[in-house]
Here is the input.
Amino acid sequence: MVPLSWYLIVAAALFSIGVFGVLSRRNGVAVLMGIELMLNAVNINLVAFWRYNTTIASVTEPVPSELNGVVFAAFMFVVAAAEVAVGLAIIITVYRNWRSVIPEEADTLRG
Amino acid sequence: MPEFDFLASLPAISVEIGLTILAIVLVFLESYLSKENRRNIAYVAAVSLAFLAAAPVIWSPTAETSGLYWGGMVRYDAFGSIFKMMILLAASLVTLMAIDDKGVHRKTEFHLVIVVASLGASLLVSAADLIMLFVALETLSVPLYILAAYNRTDRESAESGIKYFLFGSFASALLLYGFSLLYGFTSTTSLDGIAAALSQGGDLVAVLVALVLVIAGFGFKISAVPFHFWTPDVYQGAPTPVTGFLSVASKAASFAVLVRFLNAVFPGTVIVDGQSIQQFWVAFVSVAAVASMTFGNILALRQSNIKRMLAYSSIAQAGYTLIGVAALQGGTTLDQGVNLGVALGISSVAFYMFMYTFSNLLIFAGIVVVTEHVGSEDLSDYAGLQRRNPWLALAMAIGILSLAGIPPAAGFFGKFFLFQAAVESNLTALAIIGVLNAIIALYYYLVVIKIMYVDKGPDDDKPFTISTPYAWALGVASVVVLLLGTFAVTPIITWAREGANALAQAAATIVAGL
Here is the structure.
């Protein structure tokens, strides 16, 4: 079997790419994509840890605590989807007001 | 796992059930009421939220009933109750404040979103599991992103919305990566279970990485330096009632969950590789406290926009409150079987957030009224406010004195309890820096009062009146602030101590149960 550390390295790399994207990109949509990469890295972590750390006593009737890794990942999908829906709506609002999706170009607030 | 008892589990989420029903009722009212009557929806929301605030008191947990409920997802205790009450009262005042605010356009959605955000905040303060904590945090944050960008036609509101959203979801992603690591090291998502598993051994560096990521995520929510970048822009750009909600309810809930998390997952007894994890987070929190206080106060000195000044002030206030969080390291004295330093730290954070909620909302309600009549948020336009409406000026002055920490307003006791907790936990240096910062802060708070009372404005001879909902919001908040500084200190701090003891004992039991 592939060792756990391989999965964790992939997740860590994905997370770092996401952080780099958030910090280096100026376009709001690209920053959002970076955030999504970070969330996906979390999902890989959760499912890999769950697969390697948990022994399920009974496949037909698993105890709830034996499933918390996948349940966590499922909630991540839902919340990430909600976040993107709200985020894109906000980006459209910004575009309508500023004719741009680059947050730095919207700069009336300073001091 | 104990047998599931439905009726016994209900009080633990009574507030959340009430909020869900209220949200559904508001949707129906929106579709059935005619356009002229929709303004009344705000009253319905405000009164219902105020009544719901009684629920944590009516179904208050006792020593027998407090504990884990709903499959270990929520912890039902007095600490959660006091925070739920302040969140609901804050939400009620905010809906009242928003009733005629120009940025809100008298739309029902606003109140609906506030109710959902309060639902997330109340779940957050009693979360006892990483999954619950994460879902509750997002239920609070996503509505707040919407609220910050609420005024769609206003450029500043849109700008504040996108800044809040991008920083906020970045911080959530950091927090979640930390959670996934904690889950991985311990194969459990229950906060108590993580503490128990960590003290069985682990890798110090890995645990510290998770700790730093989690503290960064929470640091964003409470706008502590160095995660404060978003605060001034978002506070200034968002509609004023939203800024009020953001600065109190979101902050109070995040402080509650930070205290609960640090106390449950990394108490002093969790030792990895021979090192107590507690010393690391106490160091992080102390540095963040000093940086937030100093940075917030110094930058607030040169602000000309009142909302922006309050944003820096709120960074500084987060710094003071972090002193109470750092005091969770505890001292040497034991009181009722609980470390006195820990109990004082938790209760001082609860009391400080309670008084801060009302003081800040009082000022923001005043700002809404002034903006309506003056049309500007510049400090210079507050000149001569006392001659235009003495009651409004008095109410705002009470709020400002409270934030500055001058008796008889509530802020004095808030700071007193925080510094007392710091001294009890051998963090005297932190208390001294706090006192010095409170003196710097006096300057910019008192300048506002001077502008309102002494300076001459161009419209001094044109008085204006406050409409009924605002009179109620300002009146109730002023009375509460004055009571919290005088007669109500003892009952509230006793309640907070009860919550603190419950929390500290719960943490002690986990370790004893190993």
Remarks:
- Chain A has a mean pLDDT of 88.
- Chain A has one domain: 4-105.
- Chain A has three helices and no strands.
